[in-house]
Amino acid sequence: MTVHAVELPQLWMPHPLRVNPYLPDLHEESESWAREMGMLEGSEGPSTGDPIWTRSRFHAMTVDQLTAWTLPDASLADLRVNHRFNIWALAWDDYFASAFKQTGDLPGARIFTARLHAFLRPERGARLPEPTNAVERGIADLQQRLFPPRLAHWHIEFNRALAKYIDAGVEELANSLSGRIPHLIDYVPFRRESFAAHTAPYSVELATGARIPEQVRHSRIVRALLDAFMDFMGLANDIASYEREVHEENDVNNLILVVGTSLGINLHAAVPAALHLVNARLRDFERLRQKDLPLLVLRAGLHPEERVELEKWLRGACSFLSGLHSWYTGAPRYVPADASFPE
User: Fold this and answer.
1) Does residue 153 belong to any structural domain of this protein?
2) Domain-embedded: residue 8
3) Is 338 within the bounds of a domain?
């Protein structure tokens, strides 16, 4: 039975899609960086191994729309940086799937991941290895671009999130080779790592120029809000990518399988249960944003300018989730090629 054979509840999204006005600029240059890194078939420049995508497959992913939909307030310069990061994350995902998941090469995956760690050194000016493939070339290039001075505080934290992301790929492969489907309680926090969701607050800061004020950043309420924010990203992606991951890649790391196994229910019941769980995490985010966080702001005595900055960040976070939702439900990466999606 496939997901499409089950009647699904609606994947809830209360926030309207907003589109960055620089989308046309991004569309015009969408493949230039991927081609420069050697990710596309027929790329010119230094040889970095086999390409990851054909040109048609690359454009079918609509990474430019993903970036413009999730970051509607970003400047063109910041949009370009995040666009390249999105391309790299998808390049890592597809390269890892073809090179290691489809072949079952766990030792090779560990070697590949260990090499990537060498590109994530937090020290400025650290000497990086010579890239041997398009994924390494991409992350080496991004390390020179991802940390503008105003976001220097993110340098260590962002690379730590990337390290968790690539390490999670090895753990996912080990699960699939052993046939071990994770338990729901373990899987939800693990999915934040395997989706690189810990990088998303950085993207929102990059786009809005706003930070969560330090006085409340480490509070229980803000941690809970960020967890719900990150959970929607990865868990909703599991719903959208179920067919590709489970049936094409034989992956066991998917919320639908996790819910079915953890609760002891069949697929027909697991699909709507998984969707209800995703919707519940978004409701948690909304409750924390609308009810709990305003009370925390009052208790903390935030200054008016801090409240404005917090609201600006929250608006960016809501747009980020809305953009992901639109991409999951409309991009050809997850739906048939003849489906329509917003321009």
Assistant:
1) yes
2) no
3) no
What CATH number did the domain enclosing 108 receive?
A: 1.10.600.10
pLDDT digits (tens, 9 = 90+) for 162-206: 999 999 999 999 999 999 999 999 999 999 999 999 999 999 998
Question: By residue range, what is the domain housing residue 180?
Answer: 23-330
DSSP string for 209-221: -----HHHHTSHH
Phi then psi for residue 119, to 5 deg, are: -90, -5
d(CA 146, CA 111): 25
- Show the DSSP H helices in 15-153 as ranges: 23-28, 32-36, 55-60, 63-70, 76-96, 106-117, 134-142
- Residue 245: CB partners within 8 Å, gap ≥ 6? 238, 251, 253, 254
The answer to whether position 15 is within a domain reads: no
Q: Is the CA virtual torsion 330, 332, 336, 340 positive or negative?
A: positive
Q: Which residues pair with 53 in a beta bridge?
A: 40
Look up tokens 């997850």; give the residue: 334
